[in-house]
Amino acid sequence: MKYFLTHVIEPDGSWPEDTEQRLDDWVAEMDHRGVLLAGAPLRSDVAPTAVRRTDTTVSVSDGPFAETKEQVAGFDLIEAADLDEAIAVAGAHPTLGNGAIEIRPVIPGMPTPVPREPRADRERYLMLVCWDQTGDAEITEQGRPGDEPRPMDDWIAYAGERRLHGWQLQPPAFATTVRRVDGAVAITDGPFAETKEQIGGYDLLEVTDLDEAVAIATAHGSDLIDLRRCAAEVPSQVGDGAATA
């Protein structure tokens, strides 16, 4: 089963001196085990970009999709036998001491990403597809509560090779959050933050610049998309053309 790990950190926290080496070791181990399918840290020096759609307008603004104490700092897509293994993988991540990791299973059916080396003349952006989670309606595989099916095939064709991979996540009720408290791994049910808007899916883009990423996000059917610039990516990871949320 595939799980999407959202890494969040305390923005003003401190890191042990060996964090970078421990992170390299974690990536190497998970890659060797075949657990790690994709992932990247996100640029802390580049502000997120929120693309919001209403019935009549599309607005683009600086800032994250939700104001939370902890900030999204990276992601990983992993393949694990079950939630227990996913928790063990997250629990071994070296950044856990300064934040949390939200574990969310993806909707079944996602193809395994095909490796593609990063292009030197392109930038990678994590596109977090978000929606309002309030209300009692069920979330279907098509998207938000009450939506008609979106023309996702058209959007995927428009994005083309600029979209490396992506998929819809199970609702927040399926989320598990892992933290390290007093040296021990603490596990709680639910997302890392209780906010009105929650991450419902993701896409990884490889584009020339932010303007192109915004254009792709604007063409998506979601009412809210959070764009994050990737800092780097493990060379053995990344994409196909799978459907998104």
Structural overview:
It comes from Flexivirga endophytica. This is Protein containing YCII-related domain protein. This protein has 245 residues and is an alpha+beta fold. It has a single domain (2-229), classed as Alpha-Beta Plaits (2-Layer Sandwich). It is 17% helix and 35% strand. Strands 2-5-1-6-9-10 form a six-stranded antiparallel β-sheet, with helices on one face. The longest helix is centred in the first third of the chain and has 15 residues, at 19-33.
At a glance:
The protein is of the alpha+beta class and 245 residues long. The protein has helices at residues 19-33, 83-91, 152-159, 210-218, and strands at 2-9, 36-41, 49-53, 58-62, 71-79, 99-105, 123-132, 163-168, 176-181, 184-189, 197-207, 224-229.
Strand count? 12
Briefly, what CATH class?
Answer: Alpha Beta
How many helical elements? 4
User: How many strands, what sense, and barrel or not for the largest sheet?
Assistant: 6 strands, antiparallel
Instruction: Order the strands across the largest sheet as they lie in space.
Output: 2-5-1-6-9-10
- Spans where pLDDT lies below 50 across 5 or more residues: 135-150, 234-245
Total domain count: 1
The CATH superfamily bears the name Dimeric alpha+beta barrel
Please name the CATH topology: Alpha-Beta Plaits
Strand content: 25-35%
The outline comes out as globular
Helix content: 10-25%
Rg is 17 Å
Protein name: Protein containing YCII-related domain protein
Domain YCII-related: 20-108, 183-219
InterPro entries: Dimeric_a/b-barrel, YCII
Organism: Flexivirga endophytica
